[in-house]
Write a structure and sequence with these properties.
It holds the Pfam family Bac_luciferase. This is LLM class F420-dependent oxidoreductase. Its EC number is 1.-.-.-. The chain has 329 residues and is α/β, with parallel strands linked by helices. 40% of the residues lie in helices and 17% in strands. It has helices spanning 21-34, 60-70, 88-102, 116-121, 129-148, 192-200, 216-231, 253-261, 266-271, 277-289, 305-314, 316-319; strands spanning 8-13, 38-41, 75-78, 81-82, 106-111, 157-160, 165-169, 183-186, 203-205, 240-249, 273-275, 294-299. Helix 1 packs parallel to helix 11, helix 3 packs across helix 5 (129-148) and helix 5 packs parallel to helix 6 (192-200). The relative contact order is 0.17.
């Protein structure tokens, strides 16, 4: 089939049983070597099964800091971080630090947080939905406000909200990218998510849509986001639009099904691209036809580096224009 020039293909890691840093690094290096645009990871402390005793949690931004020094080309980020996990001034500093460590390759994905059991298991407060949206909006105002405050500004940056207060910060964090790292906001909510994204997002992520093989639900979410932008006088085309696609690609049906089994959820498999490289390519094309210019391939088996190599060799050239493949540093 004809490819869609300009679609960015990225790898999103969410290992079913957690991971160690060396395993994450191996997958990130395989992603870079295969020619993908970016390596992202989830920001979770529990897995798909919260009662899985084998799950090994790792901190998202600690590992991204390590990857920043051990990769050389791929962009790095979280899809998406939970605003409940970190105070906004601290998060702004963490992300700016990793951006500097990477030479300006970091992107910040941020959402409300949704996994109540995860918060309870780690002693993290989990406010009601409305408050989580309020906190997300205040966090974005603070993070982008700190990043945009000019050097030498005598007044510094201040913010007074219902949940956070910043008082005259004259030494805000300085990311390597200007004016700041791209901000990714996404979700399936019909009202507050697109409205917040319209104000703050450099990329709107239509999130995972169960059973939406044709991309029609994704297309509608992008349309809602566009209307939210227009409502505040913003050109919707200023922002990128992205989608998440669980993937299990194989050179034989048996190999594809083996990789699909690792997902561990029939619901996830029902929306995944499972099959040959040509079939996976077709699913990505459907997302592009729905308006996505960026697709995150959701990977669950962190040890299956051959999976990354196969997609890089047999799918990537048909759906995207990417930088030249490069070896690991």
């Amino acid at each position: 089939m004809a490819g869609h020039e300009g679609v960015r293909l990225r790898v999103l890691m969410e290992p079913r049983h957690g991971s160690r840093y060396e395993e994450i690094l191996a997958l990130a290096l395989a992603t870079e070597h295969a020619g993908f645009d970016a390596f992202f990871r989830s920001d979770h402390l529990l897995g798909v099964d919260p009662n899985d005793p084998t799950y090994r949690p790792t901190d998202c931004w600690t590992t991204l800091g390590g990857l920043a020094r051990e990769t050389s080309r791929v962009r790095l980020g979280a899809l998406v971080g939970a605003a409940t996990f970190r105070a906004p001034g601290l998060l702004a500093t963490i992300v700016a630090s990793v951006d500097e460590m990477s030479g300006g390759r970091v992107e910040l994905g941020l959402g409300t947080g949704w996994f109540a059991r995860e918060h309870a298991a780690f002693g993290i407060p989990f406010p009601p939905t409305g408050e989580r949206f309020d906190r997300l909006e205040e966090q974005l105002a603070i993070i982008t406000g700190l990043w945009r405050t000019p050097t030498g500004d005598d007044a510094g940056f201040s913010f007074e909200g219902s949940h956070y207060r910043v008082e005259a910060n004259r030494t805000p964090p300085r990311p390597a990218q200007g004016p700041h790292p791209p901000v990714i906001i996404g979700g399936s909510g019909p009202r507050r998510t697109p409205a917040i994204a319209a104000r703050y997002a450099d990329e709107f992520n239509g999130a995972l849509t169960i059973g939406d093989a044709s991309g029609e639900q994704l297309r509608e979410r992008f349309a809602v986001f566009a209307r939210a932008c227009e409502a505040i006088g913003r050109d919707p085309d200023e922002a990128r639009r992205s989608a998440v696609l669980p993937v299990a690609c194989g050179v034989t049906p048996a190999q594809a099904q083996r990789r699909a089994a690792v997902m561990g959820s029939e619901l996830m498999r029902s929306t995944a691209a499972i099959g040959s490289p040509a079939e996976v390519t077709e699913r990505i094309a459907a997302l592009a036809d729905a308006g996505a210019d960026t697709v995150y391939l959701h990977i669950y088996d962190i040890h299956d580096l051959d999976h990354i190599a196969l997609i890089g060799a047999e799918v990537l050239p048909h759906v995207t224009s990417t930088p030249e493949r490069t070896g690991a540093r």
